[in-house]
Amino acid sequence: MTVLRSILFNAIFYVNLIVQMIIFTPFYFLLPRKVAYGIPKFWARSNNWLMGLIAGTTFEVEGAENIPKGGYIFAPKHQSFWDVFGLLPWLDDPVYILKRELTWIPLFGWYVMKQKMIPVNRGAKGRVMLDVMRRATEEMEAGRQLIIYPEGTRRAPGAAPDYKYGIARIYRDLKVPVVPVVMHPGLFWPRRKFMRYPGHFKVQILPPIQPGLDPDLFHQTLIDRMEAASDQLLIETVRNNPQVPLPPTAENRLQELGAEL
Fold first, then answer.
1. CA atoms of 99 and 118, how far apart (whole Å)
2. For this UniProt entry, which segments traverse the membrane (predicted)?
3. Alpha-carbon distance 172 to 73, whole Å?
4. C-alpha distances in angstroms, 120 versus 97, 117, 131?
5. 3-class secondary structure for the chain?
6. Are 32 and 158 in contact (CB under 8 A)?
7. How far is the C-alpha of 126 from the C-alpha of 183, rounded, in Å?
8. What backbone torsions phi and psi does residue 235 show, to the nearest 5 degrees?
9. Rounded to whole angstroms, how far apart are CA atoms 32 and 131?
């Protein structure tokens, strides 16, 4: 049954994307930028609803009161494609730093550039990165939220931490709060797999780390806070969802923590 529900959800997920693009694209490009952002947010909400209806996967957001006003860096754990869109409805005006190649995709790239996302050539150095930071500073001054995954890429639940130092440099230069976010959607929407497992997970938005710390101290503080909260949330999520198959990384981490499930 889970296989059939997964197949059905994946099919409807892409149909939903195509249909909404066909219906809303004319309005999207005619509306003012921030008003138009409501269309991707509606798409995110509809995906979350479909995920619960078809796959039986639901979630809750805890700690939304920790989200500050104005510009800040939103720093979530990254385990699943769900992370890319799932929390859009909770953010006012988010902006991503993304591979410039994504902007070359017909229609999708136009959607991205309408929202003034920040494209970057990952192989470039020097002046290009200075331009990226200039753009990021402009967006922060406009009160937007910069989404950065501190570990850079998707990692399996329970995997050993691999936090990149780049976020510490951006924190130092932008001088805005950083909001850590922990969650384990990768148990239900695994990376590089089509399976979608039923269950319930929690997203925890932690108190922001205020600007002004030494970059090294900030980096270690971010790691310590996120990993401590992530470990406790992993234990809680697995206890509350005993039916979910665990990847080896999660099994190993639970053993290291001495968790009794």
1. 8
2. 12-31
3. 12
4. 7, 10, 9
5. CHHHHHHHHHHHHHHHHHHHHHHHHHHHHHCCHHHHCHHHHHHHHHHHHHHHHHHCEEEEEECHHHCCCCCEEEEECCCCCHHHHCCHHHCCCEEEEEEHHHHHCCCHHHHHHHCCCEEECCCCCCHHHHHHHHHHHHHHHCCCEEECCCCCCCCCCCCCCCCCCHHHHHHHHHCCCEEEEECCHHHCCCCCCCCCCCEEEEEEECCCECCCCCHHHHHHHHHHHHHHHHHHHHHHHHHHCCCCCCCHHHHHHHHHHCCCC
6. no
7. 34
8. -60, -50
9. 25
Structure confidence by residue, pLDDT tens digits, 55-92: 999 999 999 999 999 899 999 999 999 999 999 999 99
- Name the residue with tokens 């979910």: 244
d(CA 224, CA 93): 28
**CA separation for the pair 45, 51 (Å, rounded):** 10
Specify the CATH number of the domain 2-257. Answer: 3.40.1130
What contacts 164, CB < 8 A, 6 or more positions away? Answer: 150, 151, 152
Q: How far apart are CA 74 and CA 215, in angstroms?
A: 17
Reported confidence tier of residue 133, pLDDT bands at 50, 70, 90: confident
d(CA 241, CA 214): 40
Structure tokens at 222: 């971010």
pLDDT over threshold 90, residue 147: yes
Q: Structure pTM?
A: 0.92
